Amino acid sequence: MPGKEILQRIERPEALKKDEPSWATPLAWVTRRGHEAIVELLKQHGATK
């Protein structure tokens, strides 16, 4: 399933995520590009920004 591969690629330690601007998150990128299926997948796995 390609969704799991995407999630594995974007997983990073929490220390790196806390200083990340909201526009630079994986969820923000796929939302802006209109990839609704990936948006839903990220949200199911806990993405909030």
Question: Would you mind describing this structure in some detail?
Answer:
- This protein is mainly α.
- The protein has one domain.
- Helix content is 59%, strand content 0%.
- It has helices at 2-10, 14-17, 26-32, 36-44.
- Helix 3 (26-32) packs antiparallel against helix 4.
- The radius of gyration is 10 Å and the shape is globular.
- The mean pLDDT is 77.
* Helix/strand order: HHHH
SS content category: mainly alpha
Question: How many structural domains does the protein architecture include?
Answer: 1
Q: Main sheet? A: none
Distance between the termini: 24 Å
Fraction in beta strands: under 5%
Overall pLDDT confidence: 77
Rg, nearest Å: 10 Å
Counted beta strands: 0
Shape: globular
- Unreliable segments of 5+ consecutive residues: none
DSSP helix fraction: 55-70%
Number of helices: 4
Structure described in brief:
This protein has 49 residues and is mostly helical. It has helices at residues 2-10, 14-17, 26-32, 36-44.
Write the layout of secondary structure elements.
Layout: H1 2-10, H2 14-17, H3 26-32, H4 36-44
Helix pairs in contact: 3-4
Descriptors:
single chain; 49 residues; mainly alpha; 0% strand
